[in-house]
Amino acid sequence: DAKTTQPNSMESNEEEPVHLPCNHSTISGTDYIHWYRQLPSQGPEYVIHGLTSNVNNRMASLAIAEDRKSSTLILHRATLRDAAVYYCILNMNRDDKIIFGKGTRLHILP
Amino acid sequence: SQTIHQWPATLVQPVGSPLSLECTVEGTSNPNLYWYRQAAGRGLQLLFYSVGIGQISSEVPQNLSASRPQDRQFILSSKKLLLSDSGFYLCAWSEFGVANYGYTFGSGTRLTVV
């Protein structure tokens, strides 16, 4: 399985941008990059995904490196409600399952 | 719109008792269905997934089993619970495989085996 590497935890101040990095050096050409987040005592929720180009939605932006070996999830203005575990996952097109790593626990400081 | 229902929300069961957790999806057909478990303070572990009725793939050998008796129903069972079965159980579904579509998770069942 293609693997991802994320920092265990990060801190950010409220109302500031947050950049969450993810390395995926063994990504294959057809793997999509997905991001999910898990709030306390809840199931994960989808945040964003992309293949090659940068992506924006109402929740976040996804910046994908040109060689696709890394990506960054950008929260433009963090709020206390963004405190969660963020998972970066490679979706292997040849398989029907995705495996979650340990993710990054994001702490937001008021 | 599609919705996923998972119940019960919390469950306390004695060691050695049976288990049945149910998950149903509405608003879609032939979804891929998944069971995950999250032990306290740990990551998400994929237990089972199903791409169709009666088709179950097991990811981790254990005393749990899964069944898909109907297209949009996924059941997680155990004949005899162990203390180590405690955790947060999550059902999820996806459409048309996963590559270009995300997962939608249920609200989870917190199981405590005592």
Explained architecture:
- The complex is a heterodimer of chains A (110) and B (114).
- Chain A has 110 residues and is mainly β.
- Chain A contains no helices and nine strands.
- A five-stranded mixed beta sheet of chain A has the order 1-9-8-3-4, with no helix packed on it.
- The radius of gyration of chain A is 13 Å and the shape is globular.
- Chain A starts with 8 loop residues before the first strand and ends with a strand.
- The model of chain A has no long low-confidence stretch (mean pLDDT 91).
- Chain B contains no helices and eleven strands.
- In chain B, the strands form two sheets. In chain B, strands 2, 4, 5, 6, 9, 10 and 11 form a seven-stranded mixed beta sheet that branches.
- Chain B is globular, with a radius of gyration of 13 Å.
- Chain B starts with a strand and ends with a strand.
- In chain B, a hairpin with a 2-residue loop joins strand 5 and strand 6.
- Classes of the chains: A mainly beta (110), B mainly beta (114).
Strand order of the largest sheet of chain A: 1-9-8-3-4
The coarse silhouette of chain A is globular
Say how many strands of chain A there are.
9
Tally of separate helices of chain A: 0
Q: What structural category arises from helix and sheet content of chain B?
A: mainly beta
Distance between the amino and carboxyl termini of chain A: 38 Å
